[in-house]
Every structure is written in C-alpha cells, then in structure tokens.
Specification:
The complex is a heterodimer of chains A (271) and B (242). Chain A has 271 residues and is mainly α. Chain A has a single domain, classed as MetI-like fold (Orthogonal Bundle). Helices cover 70% and strands 0% of the residues of chain A. In chain A, helix 7 crosses helix 8 and helix 7 crosses helix 10. Chain B folds into 2 domains: 158 residues, Rossmann fold, CATH 3.40.50; 65 residues, no CATH class. Chain B is built from 8 helices and 9 strands. The chains are: A mainly alpha (271), B alpha/beta (242).
C-alpha cells in the first residue's frame, strides 16, 4: 500500500566518517555520532517504517534532541512572552497600537533571518562570540526562542486582553493591584493560553531555517528532525527522511491531543 | 459573618455630583445623603443613572464635578465597601475559589479563608456547590455567589446593582432574603432596581432617579404613601416614565 525506499535503493547505510568540522567545533571532543542502522545488512527491505518500529537509536537520538530544543524554546518563550503579552494587554501608553502591530508582524518572522541574526550575534567576531555557543543546541534554543516568543506574546496579549475586558470591573471593585491583576489574568487564562503555547511549539517543531544556520546540522550533536529531513532528502536518503517525517507528525499530533485534553479537563474543572 | 457597629464610613454624602460622558449627562448635580439603617433603594427606569451613581460611589467612575464624602471625610472610597454588578463576572475557578479569591483580596489570612468561604457560601445557600465551576452555576446561583464574594470584604456598605434583574421569582426571593439578612446584621445596603415591588419589599429609603436627575428621596413609607412629585406619582402608579 505504501512505498518506502529500501536501504539498497537509498544507500542510507553507507558508513559516514567522523565530521572534521564537528570535531573542530567541539574542540576535539568528538564522540562518534549514532549511526543509522549500523547492523542492517547492505541489502534488504529496511524501510522508514522499520526504522521507526525498531526504535532505531540514531533516529531516536535525533527525535530526542529535536524535542529538547523545541520544548526548551517554547518554555523560555513562554516565560518571556506570556508576561510581556499580559503587560501589553493591561497597560496603555502612547504608541501601544504600533507595538501591537509590530508584535503581530513578528509572528511571521522568517526563520532564516532569525538564524542569520543569531549567527552574527554568536559568531566568534560577534558581540556574544565569547560565549562559544554557535553550532550548539543552546544556540538552536536561542534562535527558536526568538522565533516563538512573539507568537506566544501576541496570542497571550489577545487572550488576556479579552479576559481583562470581562474581569476589569470585578477586579477594580475588589481593589486588586496591578501585579496581582497580571497573575490573576494569566492564571485564569491558563487553559486558553495552551493554544498560544501550541502555536509556538508548532512553529518550533516545524522550522528548519534558523536552527540549520546556528546549529550547523552536525551529526549526533545538533541534528534535529527537520534539519535531518532536509539533509537526507537532498542526499536522496529517503527512509530516514520519511521516518523522521512520520515521527514529527506523530509527535505534533500527540502534543496537540495532550494539550486538547488538558484544556478541556481544566475547563470542566474551572469553568 | 460578623455583627457590626453602625458604619463609621457613613453618612455617604453626594454633593452636586455631575458625570458627563461626551455630550451625554449621565448624572446631573445629584445631592444625596445615605445614612446607616435599612436598605436605600434607587429606583427609576433604564438609563436613569442608577448604575452610574453606584459606580461613582464605589469610586469606579470619575466625577466630572461635585464631591463624595464618607463619614464626613473627603477621601477615596473606603476599603470596607463592596459592589455587586448587575452582570457579575465569575472568575474561572470553582465557586469556593471565587470566594477565597475575594477573601485574599480583602487581606483575610490564608488560614481563615477556607472556613470563611464555607460560611459565606452557606449564607447565600450555596454550601453544597463550593466545588462546582462558578461559570457552570445557574444565573441565580451566580448572583448569589457574586453576593458572597462581595460580602467577603466584610463591607460596611454594600452596593447592589439590580441584583435580581432577569431572575425568576424563586431566585429573586433567595437574593432578597439574603439582602434582608445582611441588612439585619448592620450592613448598609444601597441597591438599585427598576422593580417597584422589590423596592416596596426591601426599602427603608427610596431614591427616584430619572434622566440622571434626582427626582425624589424619602423614607419608603412616605414615598409610596404621599409622593411629592409628578414623576414619583406616575412611577408608583405604574405609568411609563419616558
């Protein structure tokens, strides 16, 4: 019913030599990257589905790193974006509308532009070059945080502003101060804010442009699902690309389903 | 809820209070003194300024001119007053958590909040519904919960803005019973309604507003027996004030 290219067809199991660039970037601390199906025969019907079902260590190392990077980015972006969105929802100042328009526009930030900006910041001659973060997972987290934070902030602002319109009179009558207002609104909007986090995760999980620039797609170190899919596809190594694509889609569906469940269970409890 | 001495924040005095929104005069030089005692009921048709008067007294609406004093002091609205809005908004929490939130806002120590919340919920007849999400309660139950939340401030003065509007007779009676109970405990209730029957059932004093002006203010018995103005006579007779 489905066609999955075999290793023979794709040449996926060709042994790759240690990447000298990666070795140099890691200061010589090179650990051999997990190999894709090292034990599989040169010939046979090893397919993308097989890679997934057999729990291929190379494939799942990539999946693990992807999740670590994307979820960390969503966490950091939420820590910045939700309070920033709340603050923007509750404050009035000259030029606020302009800030909102710019924030909304930043939701469409091109990942490659963000990647380039972070690359320039973290490169050896850049202002943060001394941190030595370029071509590390941390750099990828930073890039994705920059991409995701405006999405979470913009959606949080809208959600919290709508709730503030409902709550304004009650909180004023209870004499609730500004700091407590922010906490109350974020807490009461928490189930609605799940949607903002999901949108952020969707962006992070799907993007390739930024992390390939700042991460370098180094095998076993900064290779994620999306960068691996791009690389393997360009090489014609389709089983891994397809396998990763399947896993990526499965994870996105799983996380959305979990979030949906949490939101609806929460709404049943809290109203 | 505790019994209290006569409210030291009273009398509440509005002097020449005027509120204008753009071209529209919402309150037009209202002068009124509200003293301790049985409920003061503001009556009048929709748009007469009842809600704005209550909000102004609570300090939620800025005055265009005039002044409001509490207990002879020209100060901001005292902490010991509370308001229940016509369309109360339930926080997205359980009924008990709504009351506990109001208790926390009123600086009630954390250790006492659970017990006080249970007392207040019992007072408004929601003792069994504390664990229910507030937004899933019926309209009448939500109004009673809003009343419990307002009482969490342990107010000396309680403003109620048409608390029984759109409620059925059973829910209306439940609210009115609570108002009587609260008033009997020494809380000054200032309540708006456009329901003449409700005003007759609850009022100690009646204030008739029409088009932002104070038409007549008098003890309830006097107001209903011998109204002094044509508008009051028409309103009591059930004629339309337009």
């Amino acid at each position: 019913m489905f066609y999955f290219p075999t290793l023979t067809e794709t040449g996926l199991n060709a042994q790759s030599s240690p990447d000298p660039l990666a070795e140099e970037l890691r200061g010589g601390d090179f650990r051999p990257a997990p190999q894709i199906n090292p034990g599989y025969p040169m010939t046979g019907d090893v397919s993308a589905l097989h890679l997934v079902l057999t729990g291929d260590p190379g494939l799942f190392a990539i999946v693990r790193l992807s999740l670590q990077v994307s979820l960390s980015a969503v966490l950091f972006a939420a820590l910045v974006g939700v309070p920033a969105g709340a603050l923007l929802a509750l404050t009035r100042f000259p030029g606020r509308e302009v800030v909102i328009v710019i924030l909304n526009a930043l939701m469409g930030l091109p990942p490659v532009v963000v990647g380039l900006a972070i690359f320039l910041l973290l490169s050896r001659s850049g202002p943060l070059g001394s941190w030595g973060l370029l071509f590390t997972p941390k750099a990828m987290v930073i890039a994705q945080t920059v991409l995701v934070a405006p999405i979470i902030a913009a959606l949080a602002r809208q959600t919290i502003e709508d709730l503030w319109a409902e709550y304004r009179d009650e909180l004023a009558a209870m004499d609730i101060g500004p700091a407590r207002r922010v906490v109350t609104l974020i807490w009461d909007a928490r189930f609605s804010l799940v949607t903002a986090l999901l949108a952020g995760f969707g962006r992070a999980a799907a993007e390739v442009g930024a992390i390939i620039i700042v991460g370098g797609n180094i095998d076993g170190f900064t290779r994620t699902m999306t960068t691996a899919i791009a690389l393997e596809t360009s090489k014609g190594d389709l089983p891994l690309a397809i396998g990763l694509g399947m896993v990526l889609i499965f994870i996105v569906i799983l996380i959305n389903a979990l979030a949906w469940g949490i939101r609806h269970a929460g709404e049943r409890y809290a109203g | 809820m505790s019994m209290r001495a006569p409210a030291s924040d009273l009398p509440l005095v509005l002097a020449e209070v005027r509120i204008v929104d753009g071209e529209v005069t919402i309150l037009d030089r209202i002068t009124l003194t509200i003293t301790a005692g049985p409920p003061t009921i503001l009556i009048g048709p929709n748009g007469s300024g009842k809600t704005t008067l209550l909000r102004a007294a609570m300090g939620l609406v800025p005055l265009t001119s005039g002044r409001i004093t509490w207990g002879g002091r020209e100060a901001t609205t005292p902490g010991r007053c509370a308001i229940m809005f016509q369309r109360s908004t339930m926080l997205r929490r359980t009924a008990a958590a709504n009351v506990r939130y109001a208790l926390a806002a009123a600086n009630v120590p954390r250790a006492k909040r659970k017990e006080r919340a249970a007392e207040l919920l019992a007072l408004v007849g929601l003792g069994e519904l504390g664990d229910r999400p507030a937004r899933r309660l019926s309209g009448g139950e939500q109004q009673r919960l809003a009343l419990a939340r307002a009482l969490a401030r342990d107010p000396t003065v309680l403003f109620l803005d048409e608390p029984t509007a759109s409620l059925d007779p059973y829910a209306t009676k439940a609210i009115e019973d609570i108002v009587r109970a609260v008033s009997a405990r020494g809380v000054k209730v200032v309540m708006s309604t456009h329901d003449l029957g409700e005003a007759k059932r609850l009022a100690g004093d009646v204030v008739l507003l029409h088009r932002g002006r104070l038409i007549e203010a008098a003890p309830a018995a006097e107001f209903f027996a011998t109204p002094h103005t044509g508008e009051a006579r028409k309103f009591i007779a059930g004629e339309l004030l337009v």
